[in-house]
Write a structure and sequence with these properties.
Elements lengths: L10 E6 L5 E2 L15 E5 L42 E3 L1 H7 L3 E6 L9 H14 L4 E5 L3 H13 L2 E7 L4 H9 L3 E5 L3 H11 L6 E2 L8 H5 L1 H9 L7 E5 L4 H16 L8 E7 L4 H7 L26 H11 L2 E5 L1 H15 L5 H15 L8 E6 L14
Helix pairs in contact: 2-3, 3-4, 7-8, 11-12
């Protein structure tokens, strides 16, 4: 097998997700100040990127380097992220009557979660721009991932994390050499602390969708889903959405592949899953104008779903609308039960966020939103081992 590592990007510019105002790719940008919305990397698809060349590529997410925004190979900071396995959940499918049930397991990434994808690209771009300090608010996994990639890149890292986060997330940040700050509250409170710390702009803020490049790393899940399924997409994808970058990224990948002729429609229905303790998407769908007035977010055992006011809310809603999908929230007890059931039935110890997708499927199947006969893909975003402090056993 030939290994090709030299990347060549087709990235051309950044665009505001709302009004499509253009921003240069050649300078440091955070978000679109014109509309206070995320910036999106755009690519020149008139230049050919042939999917058949993938058979000669390295077996990680940088195999899609043409559709990633890093300009020079020397700037890539990688720990081997991507090309995570996809499992058929045959025992669960047989028990509950599903004909085709799959799970893509992101726990196989460096630092044990899908956050490695986004932070690999974001830290690579930070290195490319000469950034020396990064800072991030996190519910857990993103902080550990940023700390690891910053260690590799020789960039100073500061992580701001809720104090109730399981101990292992705190320990990994410190072991990677990051400065760790703990805050009483949720990730939005961490973001407020970062605004205070970074008022002079000495750090590059890696907050979800407050910079353009984490999204590009996350979208590689979409490319892998298509490639691993021989370019035949599932009918439904069920995704645990906190900040929503993965949901948005997978959809972005599908649309890019459509434009390159790699896949044909129809595209999957995208289902966003949240915890009932913190379900802002559900609140927005019920009352788009006044949803914040009576919304009281709480912590959840699925730490990554405790994102009360996601910056990418409009983009998540657009994905759900375009795909004909929906959103659903599940109870804490169901999430805990899902972790245990999948472990006992399939031998996979997945994150609470991933387990939430399984319980969501059962609800959606009972209400006939998803049929037994459909091909369903669940996304597990991280390793269950990192969450063991969240569970009681007896």
């Amino acid at each position: 097998m030939i290994t090709l590592t030299k990347p060549f990007t087709l990235a051309t510019l950044l665009k505001c997700a709302e009004c499509h105002k253009e921003y240069p790719l050649s300078s440091i940008n955070t978000y679109a100040t014109c509309c206070n919305q995320p910036l999106i990397v755009k690519y020149d698809n008139s230049l050919e990127f042939i999917k058949e060349t993938l058979q000669f590529r390295q077996n990680n997410m940088w195999r899609y380097s043409e559709m990633l925004p890093v300009l020079k190979e020397d700037n890539i900071i990688t720990l081997g992220e991507g090309m995570t396995p996809m499992f058929a959940l045959n025992k669960l499918a047989d028990r509950y009557g599903f004909s085709n049930l799959l799970l893509k397991d992101e726990s196989f990434n460096p630092t044990g979660s899908f956050k490695a994808r986004g932070l690999s690209v974001a830290v690579s771009k930070a290195k490319e721009f000469g950034v020396t300090k990064c800072i991030i608010p996190t519910a857990g996994n993103a902080g550990g991932a940023l700390a690891a990639y910053c260690a590799k890149a020789n960039i100073k890292c500061t992580v701001v994390m809720p104090s109730h986060t399981p101990k292992i997330f705190k320990q990994e940040c410190e072991l990677y050499g990051a400065s760790l700050i703990l805050i009483d509250g949720l990730i939005n409170d961490c973001a407020k602390k970062i605004a205070e710390i970074n008022k002079e702009g000495l750090y590059f803020d890696m907050s979800t969708l407050k910079e353009p490049y984490r999204l590009e790393g996350k979208k590689t899940m979409g490319y892998e889903i298509a490639e691993q399924l021989n370019w035949q997409l599932p009918d439904v994808i069920i995704y645990p959405a906190g900040g929503g970058t993965g949901l948005i990224g997978i959809w972005k990948a599908f649309k890019e592949m459509l434009s390159m002729g790699w896949i044909t429609g129809p595209l999957p229905r995208m289902i966003a899953v949240q915890s009932k303790e913190c379900a802002p998407i559900i609140e927005v769908l019920k009352d788009p104008v006044n949803w914040k007035n009576n919304f009281i977010p709480k912590p959840t055992i699925a730490n990554g779903l405790a994102v009360p006011y996601p910056f990418g809310m409009n983009m998540m809603l657009q994905v759900l609308e375009e795909s004909g999908g929906t959103a659903i929230a599940v109870e804490e007890e169901e999430i805990a039960g899902g972790v245990k059931e999948i472990a006992k039935m399939e031998g996979l110890l997945i994150s609470p966020e991933g387990a939430a997708t399984w319980k969501a499927l059962l609800h959606l199947n009972r209400t006939q939103v998803i049929a037994d006969s459909e091909k369903v893909l669940l996304l597990n975003t991280g390793s269950g081992y990192k969450y063991l402090d969240n569970f009681n056993y007896g």
